[in-house]
Amino acid sequence: MAKSEKTAPIKNGDKTTWSESPYLIIKGFLMGSADIVPGVSGGTMALITGIYNRLIFAIKSADSKAISNTFKLQFAKVFEHFHWKFLLLLFTGMILAVIFFTRIVPLQIYMFTHPEIVYGLFFGLILGSIFLLLGEVERSKRNWRGILPLAAGALFGFWIVTLVPTDTPETFLFVFLSGAVSICAMILPGISGSYILLIFRKYDYILTQLGNIGSADTLAAALNLIPFILGAISGLVIFTRVLSWLIKKHYAVTLLVLVGFLVGSLYVIWPYQEREFQDIVRSVEVLPISDPLVQELLERDGLGPAPIYPAPSYKRIGRVINQEATFEQFRKVEVETVSRKLVSSTPFLPWVEEEKPTETVDIRGGILGMFAGLMMIGGITYLRKAGPNSEA
């Protein structure tokens, strides 16, 4: 990081140029891929790749001035004030990541079938990045006083990722609070916004409302989402301003706290975990027993309890309707679409025999994943320095 960045890390206005488009798209791609993995946030990758400060100030640029100029149809002033080019390139990379890791390389499925490799990759990447970021802290801050914000961030991050989900109400104020806190977590490195929603017991609630959009319950779902959206907007507006002030006034201390969050998050990113999942029925479809899909499911599972499949979602046979009907065409079954969501995880050491919970743990895969993640630090270092307006 250049010396000027340490004393004044943020430049006024959006200095993004089209020449750095490939670098920002790649960084956005890394952010989008991180958001897919529970326990990892896009903010983590933004910090690692050296665009965290720019991201915070770009979000902050969507302020009352930008909104006022929009309503006045003064679009030239809007584009001059709002960091649209930076966000456009970043979101392009994030969208490409979502498409790539859901349609081409199904990362969410690999998280269930090969969790040691996937989590090992991110563990190695984050571990190496911690040392990379600590190396950029001013030497004058590398003393016992610098340990305090680092330790505080690590303890807070550890506390967040180890909270146990509890039952919570679905009142306007609590859903509003859930939106505000979860959006802040999505910005903070090392803390997953989806995990915050699990802690608040609102992950399933929000997904259910989103799933009802387009159905007969669209109006009710939209009304139920209003407090969450308002909370997310409010949290984003307030938190980015607080964080931007901290970055401007106390850059080194803020960086140490953020790195501490990464240290605390290693607990849930460790590749060898006993993970507990919750099966959530997203939708139920009534089909005749002669339907090809029903026949396929019956051949796979039968009419008994369906086994748990290593996948983020799957279909299973539910209740049988008119089971006693004489003619098969009158017999129908409920086909349930089930999603599996991570509720909690407990790390263990697979090479310690008494701690090894199963013989199916891929010890070698976890080690290879961590090694690959550490090797990626070289590319990350290049990305941090790439582009005319890099923070690194």
Helix/strand layout:
Elements (H helix, E strand, L loop, with lengths): L2 H5 L13 H16 L5 H7 L3 H9 L3 H8 L3 H7 L2 H21 L2 H7 L1 H20 L9 H18 L10 H16 L5 H7 L3 H10 L5 H32 L1 H19 L3 E16 L3 H10 L11 E9 L10 E16 L15 H13 L1 H9 L7
Antiparallel strand pairs: 1-3, 2-3
Helix pairs in contact: 2-3, 2-7, 4-14, 5-6, 8-9, 9-15, 9-17, 10-15, 11-12, 11-14, 13-14, 14-15
Characterize the structure shown.
The protein is mainly α and 392 residues long. It has 2 domains: 3-272 and 360-385, no CATH class; 277-346, no CATH class. It has 18 helices and 3 strands. It has helices at residues 3-7, 21-36, 42-48, 52-60, 64-71, 75-81, 84-104, 107-113, 115-134, 144-161, 172-187, 193-199, 203-212, 218-249, 251-269, 292-301, 363-375, 377-385; strands spanning 273-288, 313-321, 332-347. It has a 3-stranded antiparallel sheet with strand order 1-3-2. The radius of gyration is 24 Å and the shape is globular. The termini are close together.
